[in-house]
């Protein structure tokens, strides 16, 4: 049952006009919080954006208007060391999170929390879409959401009743992902062209947004240039400095 649910995931970018209640959002967030957490730091917060003007700002700044304007709920997931600073303050202590390890912990905790929220939402029949586009304008979005030092937005998530569902995208074969005892890159020579054929077939025949593309072609184009180079400076401003 859970395996079937996980295997049925596809991102939803077009929603029916149904607003998620505060209770629903609280239930999903509570499910998210049960994810494992590194040393139990729980280094995340999520902003539920209900103010229409802020929703519009998010839509524009993230360059993902359709999802933010039509979804039943708009969330922004943030890694958060502000609350940990407050907790340490209760003990008259100061914490350090300017190191690379803290960044990895914060990103990991937030991702596990967010993915639990996503699976919980999908288990109730909603569709979701992550919006990494919030990192297009992290500084402006932090201002809109009043994020203090120690807090950084990592991705948004829209949740709602799907108006349209994409077909499930074929994933890489398990054999490409799963290595036994040691890493083996030799297998890719055979497996990746095979996967490109699978993805090309998927892209040519899917219900919408058809294109003659391959996975390796898309990845090469996507990763040819560094992206969002403003991020390092923004994170440093929020206190995350990769030390
Ligand atoms: C962290 C993260 C950020 C993403 N950002 C966006 C985004 O900004 N806009 C969008 O339309 N989809 C976004 N996606 C969705 C991916 O494009 C999608 O998960 C991927 O193409 C696989 O398709 P599927 O989710 O339908 O299986 C994001 C996914 C993740 C995990």
TrEMBL record:
Pfam families: Nitroreductase. The keyword Ligase does not apply. Signal peptide: none annotated. Gene3D superfamilies: NADH Oxidase. Keywords: Flavoprotein, FMN, NADP, Oxidoreductase. CDD domains: NfsA-like (cd02146). The keyword Oxidoreductase applies. Coiled coil: none annotated. Residues 7-160 form the Nitroreductase domain. Belongs to the flavin oxidoreductase frp family. This is Oxygen-insensitive NADPH nitroreductase. The lineage of its organism: Bacteria, Bacillati, Bacillota, Bacilli, Bacillales. The gene is nfsA.
């Amino acid at each position: 049952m859970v395996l079937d649910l996980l295997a049925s995931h596809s991102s939803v970018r077009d929603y029916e006009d149904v607003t998620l209640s505060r209770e629903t959002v609280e239930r999903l967030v509570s499910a998210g919080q049960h994810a494992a957490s590194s040393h139990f730091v729980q280094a995340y917060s999520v902003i539920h954006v209900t103010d229409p003007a802020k929703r519009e700002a998010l839509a524009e700044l993230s360059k993902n208007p359709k999802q933010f304007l039509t979804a039943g709920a708009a969330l922004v997931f943030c890694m958060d060391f502000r609350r940990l600073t407050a907790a340490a303050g209760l003990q008259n202590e100061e914490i350090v999170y300017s190191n690379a390890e803290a960044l990895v912990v914060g990103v990991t905790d937030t991702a596990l929390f967010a993915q639990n929220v996503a699976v919980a939402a999908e288990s109730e029949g909603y569709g979701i879409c992550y919006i990494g586009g919030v990192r297009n304008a992290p500084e402006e979005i932090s201002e809109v959401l009043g994020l203090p030092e120690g807090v950084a937005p990592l991705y948004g998530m829209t949740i709602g009743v799907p108006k349209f569902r994409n077909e499930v995208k074929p994933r890489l074969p398990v054999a490409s992902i799963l290595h036994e005892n040691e890493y083996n890159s030799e297998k890719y020579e055979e497996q990746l062209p095979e996967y490109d054929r699978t993805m090309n077939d998927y892209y040519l025949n899917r219900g919408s947004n058809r294109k003659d593309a391959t996975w390796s072609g898309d990845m090469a184009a996507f990763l040819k240039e560094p992206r969002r180079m403003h991020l390092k400076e923004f994170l440093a401003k929020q206190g995350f400095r990769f030390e």
